[in-house]
Amino acid sequence: MVAPAETSAAYDSKIEGNIVFTKLDSAINWMRKNSLWPMPMGLACCAIEMMASACSRYDLSRFGMEVMRFSPRQADVMIVAGTVTYKMALAVKRIWDQMPEPKWCIAMGACASSGGMYRSYAVLQGIDHLIPVDIYISGCPPRPEALLEGLMRLQRKIEGEHSLMDQKKQLLADLT
Amino acid sequence: MNASQMVTALKEKFGTAVLSNTEFRGEHTIQVTLASAKPLLKYCRDELAFDYLVDVSSLDHMGQEPRFEMVYELYGYGHLQHMRVKAQIPVEQDVPTVSDIWPTANWHEREAYDMMGIKFSGHPDMRRILMWEGYPYFPLRKDFPLAGRPTDLPEVGFTNVAPMADGPFVTSAGATDTVTREPRAKRVE
Fold this sequence. Notes:
The structure holds 2 protein chains of 2 kinds.
Chain A: H1 24-33, E1 38-42, H2 46-54, E2 77-81, H3 86-98, E3 104-108, H4 109-114, E4 135-137, H5 144-159, H6 163-175
Parallel strand pairs in A: 1-2, 2-3, 3-4
Chain B: H1 3-14, E1 18-24, E2 27-32, H2 34-46, E3 52-60, E4 68-75, E5 82-89, E6 95-96, H3 105-116, E7 120-121, E8 151-153, E9 157-159, E10 169-170, H4 178-181, E11 184-185
Parallel strand pairs in B: 2-5, 6-7
Antiparallel strand pairs in B: 1-2, 3-4, 4-5, 8-9, 10-11
């Protein structure tokens, strides 16, 4: 951000205090990270902790993530909370595919990250075998504080993305 | 009528079809032939008032003949008596369904089919219930490894072998202290 006084926008003393200079990428990221709409993929006991995080004591909405959407078409971060069995994995993948871009994925807890204690024929050994994971949260199950920390790290990750710049480069590459 | 009187009544009615009966801590178990299992179970519900089928399960006695065995747990809310009926399944034979006697048997039998590969004749909906349609194995059979086997059905589903690290984790029952009793990775020779 550039101080208004040093720029050409400082032409009018009535509006100069209201103008912010930034990159379009940063502005978009700022909007995205502060209105994450989670898709709660609650599959086991981790989901109980996720519900607790959304309730009044821990209050996810302090960070702009309270709008839990049970429709994948209205969500942009999937919180995979719990044990993913092979049978359920098909449904998780399908729901993930239905979420519009841009989208992020959080593997909450040991089971979603690695299969956890379920070393067996029935359990997928980590949701990252099927969908790309942005944040792994350790714990069995993780406490609500850990989920909040994970979501805040996701916000930090989104801050550093170059979505529009990458799209522009892609467009230029496609044109030539 | 209590459970032991019911066992006597069943023996009188079905004769040699009741192969044996045992009592252990007040629980009565009768072993019957598979052919007589269904009429016997129907008699149990209609005449002996066992109106509640608690569970249907199956056993795998690998290495023995016959290999599989059905177990029916019966209970009556009128007389509060419990009885267990077991029937061994001769090789490659279907088991007659009891889902027309107790509707609850429908899903129990689907589970037995899914996990053990026992087929039920006359079942209205003989599909897998826990694994997906098209999964090629029966995971609760004793020759199926705990870690699983890789399968791949394009566009439907897949499984991989689970990494067992140094497992499987074995509990040492009866050890002197809790540290040794804990389930741990122990090499089975």
